[in-house]
C-alpha cells in the first residue's frame, strides 16, 4: 500500500544521543551488513550484545535515561511478545535491578524460558499482547517500579525510538530503499527518521493478520485491528504506538504485508545463504518478493537494505520451518 500522507520533510531528525552510550557498553560492536548480491543487503541483528535481537538497543538507552531522572528505580516492568521482554530482563540484571515481564498466553515456551533465564519474573497473561500491556502499566504504577514500554506516548516509548537510532547510525554507504519489520512501530519510526535524513525510501513490513500500520495509514488515524496470531511474534500487534505514529505517518512511503507461509520461504532462502534469521527478521526478505503495484513503481531497488531484526528466538520452531519443505 502506498502511503497517501507520505511527507518526509515533516519527519524529525534521528537522535544522536544514544550512540555514544551504546559504544561505551561492554560487548558493543556494529552488527554486520551482508551483501546478498543484486543490490540487496541485510542488516543482521541476530547477535546484538549477545542477545538474538535488536531490542536491547532501545531498552538499554531507555533505562539509562530513566535512571538519570530517578536513581531510586528498583525494578523494571514490561509487556512483551518475547524479544523486548528478554532485553528488559537482560538490562535489569546488568544494572542491578529486578524485572517483571508480562507475556500473552500465545507466547511460545522458548521465549518465556529465555526471559526467565535472564533472571526476570515472568507472568503469562490469559489474553493478548494488548492485555499484557495494560497489566504492565498497572504494575508500573507501584512504588520503585518503572514501566519500560515501547508503546504509548510517554517518555520511555520515545527513548526506545531514540535508542534504535544506533542501528541506523552504524550503516555505511547509501541505500535507495529500506524494508523494516513493524509491530507497534518503534523501530519503524527510527527507520523513517534515518530515511528522511538520508533520502532513503522506507517501506514497513507487517504480518497480513496484524497489519495495524497499514490500517492506520488507510484511515489516516491510529486504528486497532484484530490479531488472530502469527508466527511473527514480535510483529503480532493490534495497534501502533502513539509515540511512533506521527513519524510513521509522515516518513513511511508505504507498507507490504506478508503471510507466515511467505516468511517460512524467506527463512529457508536466507538459511541457504548462510544466514540464521527468525520469523520477524525474515519478513523484509519475504516482502521484497511481494513488492508490486504503485509502491514498487515509487521506489528504486538498485540498492536495498533489509533489516533482519532477530535470530531464531524460537529455536525449535526455526528448525521445523527451515527443514520441512
TrEMBL record:
Domain of life: Bacteria
Keyword Nucleus found: no
Species of the source: Solirubrobacter phytolaccae
Cofactor(s) the protein requires to work: pyridoxal 5'-phosphate
Domain Tryptophan synthase beta chain-like PALP, first and last residues per copy: 27-309
Alphabetized InterPro entries for the sequence: TrpB-like_PALP (IPR001926), TrpB-like_PALP_sf (IPR036052)
Protein name: Pyridoxal-phosphate dependent enzyme
Keyword check for Isomerase: no
Database matches in Pfam families: PALP (PF00291)
Keywords: Pyridoxal phosphate
Taxonomic classification: Bacteria, Bacillati, Actinomycetota, Thermoleophilia, Solirubrobacterales
Biological processes, Gene Ontology terms: alpha-amino acid metabolic process
